[in-house]
């Protein structure tokens, strides 16, 4: 299965369904399944700011207990679009989603759907870019 390592707290926000767009500097043509891997780094400073702190607390998380080094969810990339000034003028994407991503012109927004958090996260070493993990159906 194709995987993507994402730093914390953003990986957990995706797994919780609070973040549905992942922003990157690169476009992807991949559509379909994508496992979300929580990287080893936690941005503790951002976890202590709003709206991060309140959202994480709602689910029992703090900067000190976020999962790291594990595949924590599976999702599906439905689309990828370039961030343009026109989108920004339309107020896209609104609310917390804007706070949770980097929507600078020229970046890419990956639309994630059908996110399912794993009941039993899978320990795995992450990598940059896409990487493969031989996920067995029993693990999901």
UniProtKB/TrEMBL annotation:
Signal peptide segment:
none
* InterPro entries in the record: ASCH_domain, PUA-like_sf
**Name of a matching Pfam family:** ASCH
Cite the CDD domains for this sequence. Answer: ASCH_ASC-1_like
ASCH domain residues are 4-89
Recorded superkingdom:
Bacteria
The name of this protein is ASCH domain-containing protein
This chain's source organism reads Paenibacillus silagei
| Organism taxonomic ancestry | Bacteria, Bacillati, Bacillota, Bacilli, Bacillales
């Amino acid at each position: 299965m194709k995987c993507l390592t994402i730093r914390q707290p953003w990986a957990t926000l995706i797994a919780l369904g609070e973040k549905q767009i992942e922003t990157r500097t690169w476009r992807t043509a991949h559509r379909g399944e994508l496992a979300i891997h929580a990287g080893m780094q936690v941005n503790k400073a951002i976890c202590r700011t709003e709206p991060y702190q309140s959202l994480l607390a709602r689910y029992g998380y703090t900067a000190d207990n976020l999962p790291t080094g594990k595949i924590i969810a599976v999702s599906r990339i439905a689309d990828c679009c370039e961030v343009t000034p026109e989108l920004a003028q339309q107020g896209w994407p609104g609310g917390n989603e804007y706070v949770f991503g980097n929507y600078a012109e020229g970046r890419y927004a990956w639309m994630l759907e059908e996110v399912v958090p794993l009941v039993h996260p899978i320990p795995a070493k992450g990598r940059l870019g896409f990487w493969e993990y031989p996920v067995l159906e029993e693990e999901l």
